């Protein structure tokens, strides 16, 4: 990349001559508009967009920086290309493709975006093709469900619907909009079947059959949540399932009723035992974190009266970095530790700030003293009384050397 010295102009605008003389990578893909803004040219994939306002003083620097920035954009694309090659399940990269495409629409860089868009479009087509395959597989489940909705094989069809739902849960994803419509069709077919089954059971111990289905469903849900690590949500679900169980009457067989109850209670016990162990482990971990953070607090408190401003500032920064790297402590102890740490930090930095202000006052006074010496020197410089002037000038120099630094802005 080569740049020339800017051509001088009188109205502080970048002239066409100045722009034409400028040479940098990617210049063909941008332009300078009438508002003195660098704009990225419109393409088939994106509209024209403003990248940066520029002036005669900075347009070469900004253009170069925006051109260099495009290397980072290309690096993001190369990262995706590498993942694409290495990843078997391309659908996992759909979100990244979408985010990168959106980023290309906004990236503050100058370069040839057409190649990048082309690569993304190829990947989008392949992802859509995979979605279409998955959609076809889900469509088969829908058609199977719709074929069963008028069945009178109550038990077999109930099992079949459960199998269909299970297959659906484990099926590869299709695009959300179409997938939701397919699921609505399964739900409609399933609801239609269960409504017919309900009507059929009205004269055949309807309540007990429904109770059996409901309790089976509760058992299945509780067993699913028994493996969960979403402790709050699954605890609420377990509570809701228990309340729901209490509202359901008995099933036809007492033995079956006891079997289902034991199955449900076992799933609850598994979950709550795991939850207890989990939080006991967290408690132990947080107690360990408390010890680590307490040591940091005590170290900060030992430093709060230091006047070694530079070293202590660095030490307190290190303490804060270490603090952030340590996990949580028991809730009831967290505020006390944090307040102690902040109190120590505040004490040190308030003292540091006061010292800096006092130092500034001294600098200003030093300036006043030196200004007085300069004024006196100005008064003496044209004197013909050489001996006296020389002696006083020497005195002025000795006094000058004794005075300390002055504010930087006065030189």
Topology:
Elements: H1 16-21, E1 30-32, E2 37-40, E3 49-53, H2 59-86, H3 94-104, H4 114-148, H5 154-170, H6 176-201, H7 206-225, H8 231-247, H9 254-303, H10 309-325, H11 331-380, H12 386-402
Antiparallel strand pairs: 1-2, 2-3
Helix pairs in contact: 2-3, 3-4, 4-5, 4-6, 5-6, 6-7, 7-8, 7-9, 8-9, 9-10, 9-11, 11-12
Low-confidence spans: 1-8
Q: How many alpha or pi helices?
A: 12
Radius of gyration in whole Å, from Cα? 39 Å
The H/E string reads: HEEEHHHHHHHHHHH
- Strand proportion, as a percent range, falls in under 5%
- What distance separates the N and C termini? 39 Å
Count the strands? 3
Percent helix, as a range, is over 70%
Average residue pLDDT: 85
Query: Looking at the structure, what is the overall shape?
Result: elongated
Main beta sheet: 3 strands, antiparallel
Which structural traits does this protein have?
411 residues, 3% strand, mainly alpha, 3-stranded antiparallel sheet
Short description, anyone?
The chain is mostly helical.
Give a structural overview:
- There is one protein chain.
- With 411 residues, the protein is an all-alpha fold.
- Among the domains are: 16-112, no CATH class; 281-352, no CATH class; 366-410, no CATH class.
- It has helices at residues 16-21, 59-86, 94-104, 114-148, 154-170, 176-201, 206-225, 231-247, 254-303, 309-325, 331-380, 386-402, and strands spanning 30-32, 37-40, 49-53.
- It starts with 15 loop residues before the first helix and ends in a 9-residue tail after the last helix.
- Residues 1-8 have low confidence and may be disordered.
């Amino acid at each position: 990349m080569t740049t020339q010295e800017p051509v001088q102009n009188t109205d502080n605008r970048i002239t066409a001559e100045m722009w034409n003389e400028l040479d940098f990578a990617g210049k063909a893909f941008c332009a300078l508009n009438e508002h003195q803004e660098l704009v990225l040219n419109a393409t088939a994939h994106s509209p024209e967009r403003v990248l940066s306002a520029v002036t005669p003083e900075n347009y070469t620097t900004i253009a170069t920086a925006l051109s260099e920035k495009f290397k980072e954009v290309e690096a993001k694309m190369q990262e995706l290309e590498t993942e694409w090659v290495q990843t078997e399940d391309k659908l996992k990269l759909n979100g990244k493709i979408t985010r990168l495409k959106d980023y290309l629409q906004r990236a503050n860089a100058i370069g040839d975006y057409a190649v990048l868009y082309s690569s993304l479009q190829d990947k989008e087509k392949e992802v859509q093709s995979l979605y279409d395959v998955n959609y076809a597989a889900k469509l088969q489940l829908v058609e199977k469900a719709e074929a069963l909705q008028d069945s009178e094989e109550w038990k077999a069809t109930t099992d079949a619907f459960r199998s269909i739902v299970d297959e659906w849960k484990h099926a590869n994803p299709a695009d959300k909009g179409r997938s939701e419509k397919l699921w609505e069709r399964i739900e409609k077919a399933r609801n239609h079947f269960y409504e017919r089954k309900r009507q059929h059971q009205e004269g055949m111990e309807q309540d007990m059959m429904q109770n059996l289905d409901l309790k089976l469903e509760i058992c299945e849900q509780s067993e699913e949540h028994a493996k969960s690590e979403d402790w709050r949500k699954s605890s609420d679900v377990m509570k809701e399932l228990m309340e729901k169980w209490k509202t359901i009457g008995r099933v036809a067989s007492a033995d079956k009723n006891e079997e289902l109850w034991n199955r449900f209670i076992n799933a609850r016990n598994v979950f709550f035992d795991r939850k207890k162990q989990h939080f006991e482990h967290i408690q132990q971990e947080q107690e360990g974190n408390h010890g680590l953070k307490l040591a940091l607090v005590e170290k900060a408190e030992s430093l709060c009266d230091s006047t070694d401003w530079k070293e202590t500032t660095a030490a307190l920064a290190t303490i804060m970095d270490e603090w952030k790297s340590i996990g949580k402590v028991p809730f009831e102890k967290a505020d006390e530790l944090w307040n102690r740490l902040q109190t120590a930090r505040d004490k040190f930095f308030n003292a540091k700030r006061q010292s800096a202000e006092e130092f500034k006052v001294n600098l200003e006074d030093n300036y006043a003293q030196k200004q007085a010496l300069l004024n006196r020197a100005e008064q003496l410089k044209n004197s013909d009384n050489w001996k006296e002037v020389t002696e006083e000038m020497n005195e002025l120099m000795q006094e000058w050397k004794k005075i300390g630094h002055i504010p930087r802005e006065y030189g």
